[in-house]
């Protein structure tokens, strides 16, 4: 009962809701969707279809239309549709939309049109000429009626598919074609077809012409009765001819020799016209032209060519060249011609240029690229032809050429000037050789003289043969002694006139007498048996001279000579040792100086010097000496000692060893130097530097067990020299360790050996880092304390497992309280627990209270299982 009452109440509320809604909420402003089927779209009435009138309901005017299929023909503002602009049958939708009307809940509606298929109406006549090549079948429909829909297909009379555009070339007659459009089921159940008949008329064929070019002077003997049909291919017969030499429209034979003789050279056009048959005017008349060119041969016999001009090779970069041809006895018509010529020579080639004959003369440039080096070039014309012609005639050209010379410049590059020294005021002969680039012939040269003699612009005539010639400089140009530079500045070929600069130089020596006034000699004091060098000064510009001299006082001699090599006016020579056998003072007196180059000499006056020959000290007394390598002994540690003693590493050495030189096992030599700086003969000693090898550690010798309290003595016993090895705590400046000193884990020790034979300690050492964890667990008792009292009395204040770091170096320790909280984690680097919590939070100051605690030891060695236990903390 209650349920029925609730349903009733809901129904009452629903009706009340409906009663208060506005009536416009159901308004359909765009009307109701509509549709229409049009099967006779070709009727004129379908050019204007009102879509608005097809809507149901009460649509609001003024809306807009949209073609949903883009089918064309719609005016979106008015809703008017030209149905005949739709190019295929089918269904099309158009949407009407009303905007801006208040209260509209449905402001769009759709009109659906179904348009039947339409194949079109064929035209009464469809004709085409075969010369049109193609024909569009859609042009065969009646243009006054609506055209066919475009979605159809074409077939020929055999039912084969064809394109809308068909080829008609070569066809003649009538041909049937069918156009079929697919059906629209709302209008027709099957496709619709129409037949089109196309008539093709054959075009008249005038044929394909062949033009000919003939030389009227030489080629017309076989063309006195030319049948023009022989110049056509594929033509229809019976056409009409027109052209020079023909007598009627049916005449097709022509005498070209008569045409040439009567009318002269030129292009003659003959036309052949064929009319269509039957004359339907579908195909137009067709005409083909034939061009017969008759040309005249030109005769250049007796013509002359001049090419300008011969040059010297220095003009090559800027020279331009031209050729001029002048006609022979036969006049050459004015006009444009092509001239073909070739150029012989190093850069030869052929070229054709275009120029104009004017009054029997033609000029044209010749490319300078042909003339890029010295030589004889021949420019030969091989053909001349008018540019307006077709070159059917071989023009007569006989021996039409000219030569062009490019003369070499005379070159003295690489030439060598050789001069013979002479005396003052004497003629000198200058010899030139190696002038390989200079051709044999007569030349004139210009030369300058500079230096100690001066003259410019001097000339001489020479004859060169094989790159060699000479010329003479008169004595009046060689006034001053010294060196003159002869420079040839220009050379000219007296035949060709080609001239060139030159820069061939040579020095001409005019020898003076030696200048005796500036000569000096100087000898330093020496030690007995040392070479005695004489320095000679003031030799001027001499390069090779001979000095004559005598010795006196402690050493005497007869007249001696010394050949001097002079540099910058100075020279040195050595007095023969056999002339200097005595110690004491000796004097040298120079008597004569000769210039070996000129054989001119001068006597010398008061040119002398005195010098002393000092004695040599005795060789020092010295013995062999022995050192230890570790001492780093130097030269300063050797005996004898003193500034007068110098040590050398060979008997022949002249460079003394430094006092810091570190000694090694070798032979050394000691010399004594006197106050006069004379050095004794060397004394050899043997230096012996002994070394002791560093100790060698036995295999595994660095590994010990700390529980055995190993000492330095134990470390010594594991070396190869246990009785003599000494151990230090540092490699340098370390402390010697007693044999009873206990070894410390991971500490480095340095071992040195002392030889009982040489009493030398080793220079190098044995470095050992010991390990104290090589313990056999089975040999040592293992004790874990069961309690400790961290009360600060320094007695049992920490919990520590004795010796565990030696037996189990990788152990870990964890201590827990009775609640399982970790209080402490230890290992070899953190072995002692001081009774404080270092791991768990919540213990205030971290001091563990008295009580029982538990531990776990992981030994991490020999697969020994972890050990658990308890301990008591009592403060």
List keywords for this structure.
single chain; 875 residues; mainly beta; five-stranded mixed β-sheet; 4 helices; flat
Explain this structure to me?
By secondary structure, the chain is mostly beta strands. The chain has four helices and 57 strands. Strands 7-13-12-9-10 form a five-stranded mixed sheet, with no helix packed on it. Strands 23-29-28-25-26 form a five-stranded mixed sheet, with no helix packed on it. The longest helix has 19 residues, at 2-20. Mean pLDDT is 91; it is low at 1-26.
Provide a concise account of the structure shown.
The chain has four helices and 57 strands. It has 875 residues and is mostly beta strands. Strand 54 and strand 55 (822-827) form a beta hairpin.
- The parts where pLDDT drops under 50 for at least 5 residues are 1-26
Give the overall pLDDT as a whole number: 91
Q: Total helix count?
A: 4
Name the strands of the widest sheet in spatial order.
Answer: 7-13-12-9-10
Largest sheet: 5 strands, mixed
Beta-strand content? 35-45%
Percent helix, as a range, is under 10%
- Please give the radius of gyration in angstroms: 67 Å
- Using the alpha-carbon principal axes, give the shape: flat
Helix/strand structural class: mainly beta
N-to-C terminal Cα separation, in Å? 89 Å
Number of strands: 57
